[in-house]
Amino acid sequence: MKNLMLKMEYDGTNYHGWQRQENAITVQETLEKALKKITKEEITVIGCSRTDAGVHALGYVCNFHTSSKIPAEKMPYALNSVLPEDIVVYDCREVPRDFHARFWAKGKKYRYRIYNGKYPSAFERNYAYYWPYTLDVECMKEAAKLFIGEHDFRAFMATGSRVKDTVRNVFDLSVEKKGDEIIIEISANGFLYNMVRIIAGTLLYAGVGKIDVERIEYIIKTGDRKEAGITAAPQGLYLVEVYY
Amino acid sequence: MKNLMLKMEYDGTNYHGWQRQENAITVQETLEKALKKITKEEITVIGCSRTDAGVHALGYVCNFHTSSKIPAEKMPYALNSVLPEDIVVYDCREVPRDFHARFWAKGKKYRYRIYNGKYPSAFERNYAYYWPYTLDVECMKEAAKLFIGEHDFRAFMATGSRVKDTVRNVFDLSVEKKGDEIIIEISANGFLYNMVRIIAGTLLYAGVGKIDVERIEYIIKTGDRKEAGITAAPQGLYLVEVYY
Fold first, then answer.
1. A169 - beta bridge partners?
2. Which of A41, A232, B17, B140 could form a disulfide with A200 if both were Cys (CB 3.0 to 4.6 A apart)?
């Protein structure tokens, strides 16, 4: 048995997220079916994290154990030949027997894309969140700085989540304007459920003056979800990289 | 009655091209239904040109006559509120009574996008043509120059087309590499059926050495479709601009 790690990108538009579930097509299930086709084995893939329906990945990492004789470097070609076109495997390598894509992850980087044009874009509808209001990007950049560092982020977690330890360390959080697009990038040692989308929504509120920059620290301190901004739509979110 | 001109972009992935037809959803039909919803009139829209299934538009132009009292500048908002998200109207203005989006066009500009990464892209599958082979972009640039000017382009027209006058004036044809992407842009006073896609296919053949650059002039001279390259896939093609 070998332990193989895969790196892949997927367009999440047509999937109910990563994790296998009843009555809905997911990336995990689609990948496991493709693996069965080429290895003839019943393989359970270990993903680096769940992703929500409509969320995309540029550098998703997973691993699985197999007796297949297909060399690791041929695996992307073999898999891509049977996978649908919206999932592309671009790296495969053998990893230590106990490597676990989720438990071994030391952190992750996400991107959140906002389309801020005068009219929505026919091409970005599934790949960015459309925000028609004028944004003060400098304000968003100022607000972003306040999230960096180790904080209790429970104000930025979906209501109903049951995680007990809500302290996370945000390594970096940047906001950049490129034409009509605003790109938020955030890396941290871990993320609470919907944390990136709620931080994106809070930065949007800061950008339109609905939340004062000075208020961010207060919101973090209170831990009150209702004080933070909206949960920005899933189609703007990309898992960019997993750190090991 | 006013004559209104619209400018729009559309993602052609889910449409059988522009022109209304039986048993298939087209952009024209979708737009005419939207116009009916907001004007209550049975409107026939005049498009600047046909586009094939899967082909995209960034600057499609069309016009229609209406008695509607909706001011031209409000028309994009009114239409976008009832159009599906993959069609976006971003300009509307009143034009002379005899303006005709097709007959008045003095020329058009198209873009053809090629994705030349080591693996296909999950995100570009409907928006660029995937070409996995190494391309000599300098060779493609040299080949492109030979198309510029007034030539008989019948070697670059889909077999079976019945157009008699096959002389067109190519104003410009450029090839540019941006990361893993190769972008071809071509402007001309008019285009034969599939002309851009066949020129793109011929440039790809030049890029892999399957057609010598010197041979391009000979192919134009013979007018033989079989001498030219493949018809590159529709999803790489964008109508960028119409000149009036």
1. A150
2. A232
Mutation pick from A86, A123, A238 vs chain B, by most beta carbons of B within 10 Å, is: A123
User: CB–CB of B122 and A88 under 8 A?
Assistant: yes
Q: What is the 3-state secondary structure (H, E, C) of A44-61?
A: CCEECCCCCCCCEEEEEE
CA distances from A173 to A88, A187, A201, A244 (A): 28, 7, 14, 19
Which chain A residues have a beta carbon less than 8 Å from that of B11? 122-123, 125
Instruction: Give burial (CB, 10 Å; 0-12/13-18/19+) of B200.
Output: buried
B64's CB contacts (< 8 A; 6+ apart) are: B3, B4, B6, B35, B43, B44, B45, B46
> CA A71, A73, A78 angle in degrees (round to 5)?
80
Q: Is the pTM of this model over 0.90?
A: yes
Written out in words, the top-level CATH class of the domain with range A2-95 is alpha beta
Contact A100, A29 (CB under 8 A): no
In Å, how far are A18, A59, A170, A187 from A48, measured between CA atoms?
Answer: 10, 10, 18, 15
* CATH code 3.30.70.660 region(s) in chain B: 107-243
Amino acid at B229: G
Q: Which of A56, A85, A119 sits opposite B88 (nearest CB)?
A: A119
In single-letter form, the type of residue at position B109 comes to K
Q: Which residue in the set B89, B125, B127 is minimally distant from A86, CB to CB? A: B125
CATH 3.30.70.580 spans which residues of chain B? 2-95
Instruction: Return the residue of A nearest to B124 by Cα.
Output: A86
Q: What is the ipTM of this complex?
A: 0.91
Name B204's bridge partners.
Answer: none
Tell me the CATH class for B107-243: alpha beta
Nearest Cα to A182, choosing from A201, A168, A198, A195? A201
Strand pairing class (A107-115; A181-188): antiparallel
